[in-house]
Write a structure and sequence with these properties.
- It comes from Luedemannella helvata.
- This is Nucleotidyltransferase family protein.
- There is one protein chain.
- Strand 7 (118-123) and strand 8 form a beta hairpin.
- It is globular, with a radius of gyration of 15 Å.
- It has 182 residues and is α/β, with parallel strands linked by helices.
- It is 29% helix and 20% strand.
Length: 182
Amino acid sequence: MLAAGGGRRYGGPKALVRRDGELLVERAVATAREAGCAPIVVVLGASAAEVRAQADLGDATIVDNESWKSGMASSLKTGLATLAGTDAQAAVVLLVDTPGVTPEAVRRVAAKAGSDALITATYGNRRGHPVLLGRDHWAGVATLATADVGARAYLTARAAEVVTVACEDCSDDTDLDVPEST
């Protein structure tokens, strides 16, 4: 779970945004947990102390990305490095600012997990989240990830290997860039 950004366009860290009575970071962790993901790693950065103080993340492993200002890639690298110390064979990547991603979408993508897997959800003709990265690909993903381009460059370079899973019927990966108008 990547939740380190400062939410510059949003007006503050999205991990601390409340929606339907819960913090977005809590919602994302609950989605991963309900989908059967374990371990769950939450990468924090901006306002990490406030997120820790306010969010109930249960047994999720919380790690800090000290380089969060450099972009999402550093958070992805931090999360993958943390998982490298576990026996996880794949990582499902979720973003804190996509609250419409459902446990069903995560289950669909995770159902094809393996150490050599590259899987992405699709919404019509567009690839989106969640994304599953098999352990065999973590080093390559980390090498190509820069700034706010997480795994995209790696997935593009290996487009023929990427398995797509239709999720438009059960999920919405629209990201929250700016606060909703009231």
